[in-house]
Amino acid sequence: KAVPAGEGGMAALIGVDLDLAREICAEAAILRAEGQPDVRETIEVANDNGGGQIVVSGRIGAVERAVAAAKARGVKRAVMLPVSAPFHCTLMAPAADAMGEALERAEIAPPVVPVIANVSAAKVTDPQAIRDLLVRQVTGTVRWRESVEAMAAMGVDSFVELGAGKVLSGLVRRIVPDAAARSVGTPADIEAFLATL
Questions:
Q1: Cα distance from N-terminal residue to C-terminal residue, the chain
Q2: The pTM is what?
Q3: What is the CATH number of domain 8-81?
Q4: Which is deepest, 58, 140, 188, 190, by most CB within 10 Å?
Q5: Which GO biological-process labels does this protein carry (predicted)?
Q6: Angle, nearest 10°, between helix axes 144-153 and 167-175?
Q7: Which pLDDT tens digit goes with each residue over 117-173?
């Protein structure tokens, strides 16, 4: 509901670093039409996934221009993502507001182990700070690379991805090659994993 269907989008840029992705966003944000003043459209870095993978998010036209600009610069791969909204960008502010209201009613206890907030890449234990960071991540950049690096610096050497897919565990292996990373996506996988503890 934050952004009407078809008005926002996301794209993955493969083979870029954060600085180049930001340059591409700055270029793609400007809509030029002959005889018309330039129009600035929202496009932002949504995810720094590490391993040369950056996801951008914003107005559909700006995201399409970013894909074209990335290809023109010789980026390894630039592809639109099949998503329903431009997640992790400022266009999602109405959703962030709704989430903030819902989280104010939720009971959040101090975690047993520190939580690494993906929007700050820092550990957090205070329940109110957790609420605030959960709201911020709706519109803020997911700092996955930095979050994994922070966990590795804290001594974490084993990562478990819960749920369908293996994308995150694959990204962890790119960021921290010596780390053990595995995906457990089915109830049977979870049972087998728990038996190893």
A1: 42
A2: 0.90
A3: 3.30.70.250
A4: 58
A5: fatty acid biosynthetic process
A6: 60
A7: 999 999 999 999 999 999 999 999 999 999 999 999 999 999 999 988 889 999 999
CB atoms within 10 A of CB 20: 16
pLDDT tens string 45-90: 999 999 899 999 999 999 999 999 999 999 999 999 999 999 999 9
| Tokens (6 digits) for 173 | 């292996």
Residue written as token pair 């890449």: 121
Calculate ∠ Cα 57-172-130, nearest 5°.
Answer: 65
Nearest to 50 by CA among 177, 187, 178, 186: 177
Bridge partners for 172 per DSSP: none
Cα angle for residues 42, 76, 11 (degrees, 5° grid): 30
Amino acid at 56: V
Joined tokens for residue 15: 């083979």
- Token duo for residue 59: 């107005």
Chain position carrying tokens 């502010």: 93
| Strand partners of residue 12 | 55, 79
Residue 54's SS3 state is strand
Query: Rounded to whole angstroms, how far apart are CA atoms 126 and 82?
Result: 35
Domain coordinates in residue numbering, the chain: 8-81, 157-197
